[in-house]
Amino acid sequence: MGQQTRIVLIDDDQDACELLKMQLENSGRMSLTYSTNSNDAVPLISEELPDIAILDINMPGTHGVEIGSALAANEKTSNIPVLYLSGMVTPDEVRELVKGEEKPSIVSKGSPVEDLIVAIEARIAA
Questions:
Q1: What CATH number should be reported for the domain holding residue 52?
Q2: Residue 94 has what pLDDT?
Q3: What predicted TM-score, i.e. pTM, was given to this entire model?
Q4: How many other C-beta atoms are found inside a 10 Å radius of the C-beta of residue 75?
Q5: What is the pLDDT, as a whole number, of residue 1?
Q6: Whole-angstrom distance between the N-terminal and C-terminal Cα of the chain?
Q7: Residue 16 burial by CB count (10 A; 0-12/13-18/19+): exposed, middle or buried?
Q8: Which domain holds residue 77?
Q9: Closest by alpha carbon to 57, among 81, 36, 87?
Q10: Count of domains in the chain?
Q11: Of 5 and 109, the one with more pLDDT
Q12: What pLDDT band is residue 25 in, cutting at 50, 70 and 90?
């Protein structure tokens, strides 16, 4: 079996983090580290240097888009792909938003985990 995809998830919802950790790690192809504190995001991602960062968009403290911008501006993390999670859009709205995108940049929290796995794999594909 190949190397596992290393993921860092930043989401203020502890239950959502635990559920995604279980679901993604059950695939056997992914390992997930998470933090529920958005202020820890950049230091954690800089330390872990994951294959992909998954960021909740709407969080107290630092929003996911701000974290994504900070990662892009940091030489150490600028090459880490980012995938955004949002509970503010439905899976259908996301499909419309990313229509035609080869590497979708956002997934609805209401999407099945299989959609998230497909989006992760597309974002990290070379």
A1: 3.40.50.2300
A2: 62
A3: 0.90
A4: 6
A5: 47
A6: 19
A7: middle
A8: 5-124
A9: 87
A10: 1
A11: 5
A12: very high
